[in-house]
Every structure is written in C-alpha cells, then in structure tokens.
Amino acid sequence: MLKENKKIIAVEKPEGDGAVVKRLFPTVYHNHFDPFVLIDEFFVEAPNEFAPHEHSGFEAISYMLGGAFRHEDNQGNEEEVDQGGLQTFNAGKGIVHSEAPGTAGYAHGMQIWVNLPSEMKESKPEYQALNPENVPVQEKENVIIRSLIGPGSPVKLKTELLLQDITLVKGGSYNIQLSDKMHGIIYVIDGIIETEKKLNEGEALLLTSKASIEIKTLADESRFIFMAGKPHGQKIKIEGSHVL
C-alpha cells in the first residue's frame, strides 16, 4: 500500500513487432497501482504493428496522442481512431485483437490496462470508441482539459475511472483533490511540471488517496495525463497478456 506520493520513471523497451514503449509499470522498479495494471506510452510506425494476440481479465484503453490506430478483434469490431480519440475494450473472459498504425502511417499514444473486479473476469468482451470530435473539452485561462473518461464522457467502464489530457500554458495551474476512495497518477507527455516534485517527460507521480496537489508548468507549455481509479483491493496477478 502506498503511504506517500511516489515519483517513478518510465522505462523504454521494445514491444510487439517493431514498436517501442515507455513503460511506467509493470517494471522491476514498480509492479502495479490498483486498479491500474499497466501503463505504456507507445510509438509504432507502419509496417510495424501489434499482431493478433489474446487478452483476458482487464479493460484496456488506447488514447491517441498522434497519428491514428486501427483495432480489429474476433468479436467483429474493426475501427480506426484518429489523434485525440480513444478506443477501449473489456477483455473479459477472452478477446483476440490486433492494433496497427492507421492511414497516418504512425501511432503515438497511451495504453492503460485497468483490472476487472473479480466477479467480472468471466464477462463477455466489449468494445467502445470515442472519436476526437466527441471528447468534452474545457478551456480556462492557460488551461485546456480534455475529459476522456469521467463526467461528460460517453465512455463507460467496469471500474470507476477518470482520465484527462491536460495542457498548461505558462501561468496556468491545475489542482487535484483525490477522495479517500481513489488512487491517482500524473504522467508527463511534454514539457516540465512542478507538483511537490518536478516531473519531466516520461515521469509520473503516483498519488495516494486524499492527495491534494497543485500543478504548474515550468515550460512555456506542458502536457500531462491525469488518471484516477477506484481500487478493487484484490490481488493483481499478470501472466503474459492476461490478468488473473
């Protein structure tokens, strides 16, 4: 159990057929953060891809930071989502899918695995997509908030979750106040931000329940992902591409 906010750094590694990821966890340095099982920032250019493979026991989110991504699975779903859009699936009792760069020829994004409650491990697989034009956007002075999952978003998961893409322009700030029922993560995509610790690109801060954080940019512009999820309080066991 995390007793205080913890800074961790993503590890770059090859993945799939010619893809590269910055993996926040699981690594030798940090395993998981209930309910989050895996967090990757991925980079893949055609003809490289993530060839067909099977998953079970969790929900996956792919959020496009650049380019486009094409998802195809054995449930009959086949769709391409552009930059700013999102795809998610409940692997449930088992799904076979592939992912590849779309018409843009490259894909840069975040992939997040969220553990399923134990009673839903054998649920029927499901797929959802959110196109960029349907993402709720809120613009304040020097702050842009894209609400991908949570209030205002049509995406619904089996776990209570909040996912935001936030851009801070110099002079802007963003405040996070977690409830006692949520764990949070701040992950920097571009720029440098200041919280209780300075975070550069590819670095993250794991937030305990009840964390109270003010975020400021130390660059002219910084972009980060904020996610928060309700822990299940159950053991997380990963076997390859399956979460038991």
Describe this structure in words.
This protein has 244 residues and is mainly β. The chain has a single domain (6-243), classed as Jelly Rolls. The chain is 0% helix and 58% strand. The radius of gyration is 17 Å and the shape is globular. GO terms for molecular function: metal ion binding. Residues 165-243 form the Pirin C-terminal domain. This is Pirin family protein. InterPro entries: Pirin, Pirin_C_dom, Pirin_N_dom, RmlC-like_jellyroll, RmlC_Cupin_sf.
Shape: globular
The computed structural class is mainly beta
Give the mean pLDDT.
Answer: 95
CATH architectural name: Sandwich
Rg from alpha-carbon coordinates? 17 Å
Fourth-level CATH superfamily: Jelly Rolls
Write the layout of secondary structure elements.
Blueprint: E1 6-9, E2 11-15, E3 19-25, E4 36-45, E5 50-55, E6 58-73, E7 78-82, E8 86-90, E9 95-101, E10 106-115, E11 126-130, E12 137-140, E13 143-149, E14 161-169, E15 173-177, E16 183-190, E17 193-194, E18 198-199, E19 203-207, E20 212-217, E21 221-229, E22 238-239, E23 242-243
Antiparallel strand pairs: 1-19, 2-3, 3-4, 4-10, 5-9, 6-7, 6-8, 6-9, 6-10, 8-11, 12-13, 13-14, 14-21, 15-20, 16-19, 16-21, 17-18, 17-20, 22-23
Family: Belongs to the pirin family.
Protein name: Pirin family protein
Binding site for Fe cation: 53, 55, 97, 99
